Amino acid sequence: MPPPPSLSTPAPERRLAVLLSHFRPCLEAPRATTRLASAERHGTAAAAEAEAEAEAEAELSASPCAAAGSGEAQSSGGGNCVFCSIVTGAAPAFKLYEDDECLCILDAKPLTTGHSLIIPKSHYPSLQTTPATVLAAICSKLPLLGTAIMKATQCDAFNVLINNGEKAGQVVFHTHVHIIPRSKDDNLWSSETYSRNPISHGQETKNLVSSIKEVLSSSPEDYSTVMSSTPKAF
């Protein structure tokens, strides 16, 4: 596994690493399939038991990514989702926390020591398709997990990051939240990395506010139908 970006790496490259840090194909065969092949070499009874176990695990391991088309079944690449594989145990990961709704794991290519991901156990390709109850469950664990990670890494702050959509840098289309521990001299980005100008109080800004409010007032509960193709009023 490549080491995390060094502190000497230029800042733009480190920011790009956030977008690519968790992109890792699942190449490991399901554990039950491996056990079945081994059992078949050692006798019929063991093979029968392993086959039953393999069938049960196959049901649990069937990623909803494989059935593209519905909101919960959008593929994250070739019908395979690395996060679904981690949830079912078909792919390895360092698990930090788990409950009925979500799982927290160490990022495979961390920006800083302790860089972690919170993922829902069910497959949702974006924030818009993730139920509010699932998002609430994830967000409710951020103080607990963020504090634990800060204390364990002896950091005094952390960033919470979500890349939602391809143009925002999302490369694994299974909703996930980054927790990135920060310290004074980590040389990652700061909140003032880019120059910022005061907001205009002119008509363009007023039109923007009106347009957003109009979309909000007419939005259905299924936010996945609210697309960027909404006509602009500014």
TrEMBL record:
GO terms for biological process: purine ribonucleotide metabolic process; sulfur compound metabolic process. It comes from the Eukaryota. InterPro entries: HINT, Histidine_triad_CS, Histidine_triad_HIT, HIT-like, HIT-like_sf. Residues 82-189 form the HIT domain. GO terms for molecular function: adenylylsulfatase activity. One of its GO terms (cellular component) is peroxisome. The active site is at 176 (tele-amp-histidine intermediate). A motif (Histidine triad motif) lies at residues 174-178. PANTHER family: ADENYLYLSULFATASE HINT3. This is HIT domain-containing protein. It comes from Setaria viridis.
